[in-house]
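ok, trying the design again with the full structure, not the truncated one.
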């Protein structure tokens, strides 16, 4: 019952589930150009750090299919496509990571020009397959944190809609549910774009997982109530020191969890860990359109809008990191390889 947010079509166009229309409408779009994929990422039709990387790699392959007759022209077209796609969402490091793999594949392809498209389709598919396997390993690493009867609070959407598999933050929950454990999820609404109430609650209830939606400003009170076993969130980038960039509002949840003695876990694949970024202060934070705040409800038109898409949670607030390499503590992060283990 989990949604399939991305796929190839028979002719290797990119098929996505338009997440801006959920939960009211389940509509799939077929994208045949790099520009269409870039727009879909920019407008959040496809979203979630791991899924953005997969979509971008798929999108880059489209440039190899339709650019010029010579191999040099095709390679240049793909490299230009990578630059266009990478500029769409600056915070999610998976995007840059996946596109660097595409660039490496372009540099390594020689011979007939018609081999480039096949090579890039294979590379994008490999990234997708690896992410699916990483999600399963994240789920297994986090499964002991979700015992029978647990209630887990999460923020934003880090499930099947955000990845190539069963998700990151929601992966342990799906595996616990699959094993027959009784588990309940508290989903923060996640203003202003409501990814928690629109997306997380939609995919969880579709899978049969009992879910309660709360407004973001209710999270601290719910944590104080004493019925939340742990908090599990995803990440868009994790700096070398363990600081975590995730959807705006995550920092407040982490502070409330610490105040009330509730463990706070971050679930992410190795592709989300960025050793080139020393700490959270160095993570670029995307500013979104003011209209996103205004459209939620009436707002004074002359007031300015501050609308960062993400905030940074300091590493000292993180109880542990649920990764495809296991459940890790902050001091163990330096042992992670930046490139994930290939799917078996």
């Amino acid at each position: 019952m989990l949604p399939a947010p991305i796929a190839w079509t028979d002719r290797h166009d990119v098929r996505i589930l338009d997440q801006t229309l959920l939960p009211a409408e389940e509509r799939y779009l077929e994208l045949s150009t790099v520009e269409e994929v870039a727009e879909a990422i920019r407008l959040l039709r496809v979203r979630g750090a791991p899924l953005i990387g997969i979509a971008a790699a798929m999108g880059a392959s489209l440039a190899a299919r339709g650019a010029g007759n010579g191999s040099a022209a095709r390679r240049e077209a793909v490299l230009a496509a990578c630059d266009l796609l990478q500029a769409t969402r600056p915070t999610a490091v998976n995007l840059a990571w996946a596109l660097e793999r595409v660039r490496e594949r372009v540099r390594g392809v020689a011979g007939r020009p018609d081999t480039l498209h096949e090579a890039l389709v294979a590379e994008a598919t490999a990234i997708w397959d690896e992410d699916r396997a990483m999600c399963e390993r994240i789920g297994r690493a986090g499964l002991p944190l979700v015992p029978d009867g647990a209630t887990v609070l999460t923020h934003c959407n880090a499930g099947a809609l955000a990845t190539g598999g069963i998700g990151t933050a929601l992966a342990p929950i799906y595996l616990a549910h699959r094993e027959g454990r009784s588990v309940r999820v508290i989903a923060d609404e996640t203003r202003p774009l409501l990814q928690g109430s629109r997306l997380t609650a939609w995919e969880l209830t579709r899978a049969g997982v009992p879910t309660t939606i709360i407004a973001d400003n209710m999270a601290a009170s719910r944590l104080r109530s004493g019925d939340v076993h742990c908090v599990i969130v995803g990440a868009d980038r994790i700096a070398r020191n363990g600081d975590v960039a995730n959807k705006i509002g995550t920092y407040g949840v982490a502070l409330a969890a610490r105040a009330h003695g509730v463990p706070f876990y971050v679930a992410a694949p190795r592709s989300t860990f960025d050793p080139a970024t020393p700490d959270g202060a160095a993570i670029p934070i995307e500013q979104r359109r003011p209209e996103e705040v205004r459209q939620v409800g009436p707002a004074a038109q002359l007031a300015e809008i501050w609308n960062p898409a993400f905030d940074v949670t300091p590493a000292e607030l993180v109880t542990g990191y649920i990764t495809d390499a296991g459940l890790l503590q902050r001091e163990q992060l330096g042992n992670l390889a930046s490139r994930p283990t290939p799917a078996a």
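Keeping the full-length input from now on. The radius of gyration is 20 Å.
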